[in-house]
Amino acid sequence: MILTLLVFEGLVLFNVLADNAMEAIKDKVDISVYFKSNVAEDDVLNIKRILENFDEVKSVEYVSRDKALEIFKERHAGDEVITQTLAELDTNPLLASLNVKAKELSQYEEIASYLNSASLQGLVEKMTYAQNELVISRLESLVNGLNIGVLVFTLFLIF
């Protein structure tokens, strides 16, 4: 009886830890979309609103050019060369961006296809999906494999 309870408790603990690990992995993935420097903030915010209405989208974070510069300066505060170079520039070299998180790893491709659409080609400077596509697909395979592994392990311990 005690052995059964210990096995059951271990199974529950394993499932909770596996679920938390998978969610932590999924939460680290996003698509960053950088807009050309001549794109108006209203246009970027309009695209943000459109993306927020997608069923696949969990969240969209807007990072203005000024905020991007502030974050960059904070990250490189100890680097004299970067600090001096930024001081010599007349304008902000960084671009406004949107950081898009999907509800599921498999939904990033659909979001990326919208962001690559012809209507946005003149606005988007760069998108990180192409760089992250392989990582996203591998993470998706890993998460699916872990889900199957947890299920098999659970069934094994039950029977």
From TrEMBL:
GO terms for biological process: cell division. Pfam families: FtsX_ECD. Residues 29-117 form the FtsX extracellular domain. One of its GO terms (cellular component) is membrane. PANTHER family: CELL DIVISION PROTEIN FTSX (PTHR47755:SF1). This is FtsX extracellular domain-containing protein. It comes from marine sediment metagenome. The lineage of its organism: unclassified sequences, metagenomes, ecological metagenomes.
